[in-house]
Design a protein that fits this description.
mainly beta, single chain, about 5% helix, Immunoglobulin-like
């Protein structure tokens, strides 16, 4: 009884554009009179219900189901002691395919101390003009 005097309710059904009910739709409720969001999942008949809901005129519902377009309804009014009925209709998404992003591995040869710039020649093409890196072994630098 106390809930009816201080809160309202939101209940509804989610269907696709062919009219069959959609089970397992994630329904997210938010609004300025709420602390955070609340989530419900539609049953086998596409029904959902939020009880209790603080009264207000700016509640929002978001409907999400893989393979379907996400739907959002805003400006939902909830009155004290009353049920606000919602009918939501969504449709199959054109972009229902999975996209996988991969990157190529970079192979680093740690046994070399030189940088290969494609051919081993200086821009003039002469191998004698290449900068020499110091050679080190276990006995120290070699000249």
């Amino acid at each position: 009884m106390w809930e009816q005097q201080h809160f309202g309710f939101i209940a509804g059904t989610v269907v696709d554009n062919q009219r069959p009910p959609l089970p397992a739709v994630t329904v997210t409720l938010s609004g300025p009179a709420m602390q955070g969001t609340r989530v419900a999942v539609t049953d086998s008949q596409g029904r959902f219900r939020f009880v209790p809901v603080p009264p207000g005129k700016d509640h929002s519902l978001k409907f999400e189901l893989a393979g379907f377009n996400t739907l959002e309804q805003t400006g939902i009014i909830v009155n004290l002691g009353k049920e606000t009925a919602i009918a939501a209709e969504t449709s199959l998404s054109q972009f229902a395919e999975a996209i996988t992003v991969t990157a190529e591995k970079i192979v680093v040869d740690t046994s070399k101390s030189t940088v290969d710039k494609g051919g081993g020649l200086d821009p003039g093409g002469h191998p004698d003009h290449q900068p020499q890196l110091p050679n080190h072994d276990a006995d120290g630098p070699r000249g």
